[in-house]
């Protein structure tokens, strides 16, 4: 991060895309700003445990749906992720310019 060149910003942008949503960003920042590593670990553990029921429920519901619906949703989500990747790359390019 100290070297402000295009390759570092591009790498940071791609790594940034691995975090799925703003809520994760919030709790990640909260963990980073905490007093020590134990507090940060506790924050992320509680966040993970609190999101686990929603993820399991979503997995169960999508397991009940038909294969055609899952195939359509998979393709739609792939298109959205690709579009978001282009958008985040554009934002990284604009921030560097």
Question: What can be said about this structure in brief?
Answer:
It is built from four helices and no strands.
What is the element layout, followed by pairings?
Blueprint: H1 6-16, H2 22-32, H3 37-64, H4 67-96
Helix pairs in contact: 1-4, 2-3
Structure notes:
With 97 residues, the chain is mostly helical. It has one domain. 82% of the residues lie in helices and 0% in strands. It has 4 helices and no strands. The chain has helices spanning 6-16, 22-32, 37-64, 67-96. The longest helix has 30 residues, at 67-96. The radius of gyration is 17 Å and the shape is flat. The model has no long low-confidence stretch (mean pLDDT 84).
């Amino acid at each position: 991060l100290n070297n402000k060149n295009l390759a570092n910003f591009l790498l940071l942008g791609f790594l940034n895309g691995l975090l799925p949503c703003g809520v994760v960003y919030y709790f990640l920042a909260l963990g980073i700003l905490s007093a020590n590593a134990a507090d940060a670990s506790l924050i992320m553990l509680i966040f993970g445990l609190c999101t686990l029921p929603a993820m399991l429920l979503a997995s169960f519901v999508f397991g009940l749906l038909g294969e055609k619906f899952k195939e359509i949703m998979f393709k739609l989500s792939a298109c959205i992720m690709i579009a978001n990747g282009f958008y985040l790359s554009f934002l990284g390019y604009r921030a560097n310019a």
